[in-house]
């Protein structure tokens, strides 16, 4: 039988709490042992009904307790969680994937420590096909993201450029550029573009459009890949989560599926 892996989760919000609850229900091969939260009282209340209560520890201590460290916190604390996990040689599963792009030295560190960085598909789709295409010759990769204007509120790029979305009544293109710049300008909104870039042809060549679109109720991402061997066109329409409308409800489910793939005997998809 495959070895059971212990899991620690940084952040108990839209992603982390759902993932923690699912793990607590029992998932073969995985055991939730530790979580980290900003609001200790809220976290204690959220964990009250758990069958097996995980330890509530500071961010940097997750890596001491768990084989797998899932980061599900704001991008601002990404480096702290990532560095602790990778230094200890753990399996690090980031949600704030955009924060990885300017910190690719963490991949070199992981090479030295034996850690693995496993980027989940998250709120996106089709990264298996994009990775396969990238083994051949890819000419272009684009992603078009459409979110209800409220799902983009607070993005640094909008604040710096003084873009006010409160009165938007028709689709507005708010950003066009590469995935690296998109991730810097919209750290809480386009982690999907960062994951796509890492799966395919990198953050400089992966092109991103972000639309504030009052005609959509779902966070919608369309990927287009043109390669010698294949053409891909794929769309995902995510139901925004109640806790954080920027985050689609599929995200914790995708991370759970990713974690299962780390231990399961039968694994489907590349
Ligand atoms: N990879 C993907 O496809 C997706 C990634 N994301 C990203 O995942 C991350 C988490 O997203 P959500 O769960 O929706 O965010 P959220 O805001 O609902 O939850 C984050 C949690 O982290 C907690 N937190 C903040 N500072 C902390 C600290 N110092 N220590 C411990 N906990 C702390 C907050 O209190 C909150 O409970 C974000 O960076 C988000 O942009 C979101 C959606 C899709
Ligand atoms: O669509 C979503 O659920 C979230 C999203 O775009 C991201 O953070 O990349």
Automatic annotation (TrEMBL):
<feature type="binding site">
    <location>
        <position position="123"/>
    </location>
    <ligand>
        <name>NAD(+)</name>
    </ligand>
</feature>
<comment type="similarity">
    <text>Belongs to the L-aspartate dehydrogenase family.</text>
</comment>
<dbReference type="Pfam" id="PF01958">
    <property type="entry name" value="Asp_DH_C"/>
</dbReference>
<comment type="function">
    <text>Specifically catalyzes the NAD or NADP-dependent dehydrogenation of L-aspartate to iminoaspartate.</text>
</comment>
<dbReference type="InterPro" id="IPR005106">
    <property type="entry name" value="Asp/hSer_DH_NAD-bd"/>
</dbReference>
<keyword id="KW-0521">NADP</keyword>
<dbReference type="InterPro" id="IPR020626">
    <property type="entry name" value="Asp_DH_prok"/>
</dbReference>
<dbReference type="InterPro" id="IPR011182">
    <property type="entry name" value="L-Asp_DH"/>
</dbReference>
<feature type="domain" description="Aspartate/homoserine dehydrogenase NAD-binding">
    <location>
        <begin position="11"/>
        <end position="120"/>
    </location>
</feature>
<dbReference type="InterPro" id="IPR036291">
    <property type="entry name" value="NAD(P)-bd_dom_sf"/>
</dbReference>
<dbReference type="InterPro" id="IPR002811">
    <property type="entry name" value="Asp_DH"/>
</dbReference>
<feature type="active site">
    <location>
        <position position="221"/>
    </location>
</feature>
<feature type="binding site">
    <location>
        <position position="191"/>
    </location>
    <ligand>
        <name>NAD(+)</name>
    </ligand>
</feature>
<keyword id="KW-0662">Pyridine nucleotide biosynthesis</keyword>
<dbReference type="Pfam" id="PF03447">
    <property type="entry name" value="NAD_binding_3"/>
</dbReference>
<protein>
    <recommendedName>
        <fullName>L-aspartate dehydrogenase</fullName>
        <ecNumber>1.4.1.21</ecNumber>
    </recommendedName>
</protein>
<feature type="domain" description="Aspartate dehydrogenase">
    <location>
        <begin position="169"/>
        <end position="255"/>
    </location>
</feature>
<comment type="pathway">
    <text>Cofactor biosynthesis; NAD(+) biosynthesis; iminoaspartate from L-aspartate (dehydrogenase route): step 1/1.</text>
</comment>
<keyword id="KW-0520">NAD</keyword>
<keyword id="KW-0560">Oxidoreductase</keyword>
């Amino acid at each position: 039988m495959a070895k059971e892996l212990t899991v620690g989760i940084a952040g108990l919000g839209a992603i982390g709490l759902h993932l923690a609850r699912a793990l607590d229900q029992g998932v073969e091969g995985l055991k939730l042992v530790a979580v980290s939260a900003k609001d200790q009282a809220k976290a204690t209340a959220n964990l009250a009904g758990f069958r097996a209560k995980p330890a509530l520890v500071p961010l940097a201590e997750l890596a001491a307790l768990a084989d797998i460290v899932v980061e599900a916190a704001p991008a601002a604390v990404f480096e702290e969680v990532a560095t602790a996990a990778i230094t200890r040689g753990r399996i690090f599963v980031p949600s704030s994937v955009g924060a990885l792009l300017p910190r690719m030295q963490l991949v070199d560190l992981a090479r030295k420590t034996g850690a693995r960085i496993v980027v989940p598909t998250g709120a996106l789709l089709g990264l298996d096909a994009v990775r396969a295409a990238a083994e051949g010759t890819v000419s272009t990769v684009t992603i078009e993201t459409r979110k209800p204007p409220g799902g983009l509120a607070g993005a640094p790029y909008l604040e710096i450029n003084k873009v006010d979305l409160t009165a938007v009544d028709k689709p507005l293109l708010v950003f066009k550029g590469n995935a690296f710049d998109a991730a810097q300008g919209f750290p809480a909104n386009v982690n999907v573009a960062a994951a796509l870039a890492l799966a395919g042809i990198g953050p400089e060549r992966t092109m991103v459009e972000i639309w504030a679109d009052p005609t959509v109720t779902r966070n919608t991402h369309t990927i287009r890949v043109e390669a010698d061997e294949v053409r891909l066109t794929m769309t995902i329409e995510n139901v925004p989560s109640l806790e954080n409308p920027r985050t689609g409800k599929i995200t914790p489910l995708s991370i759970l599926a990713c974690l299962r793939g780390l231990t399961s005997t039968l694994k489907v998809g590349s």
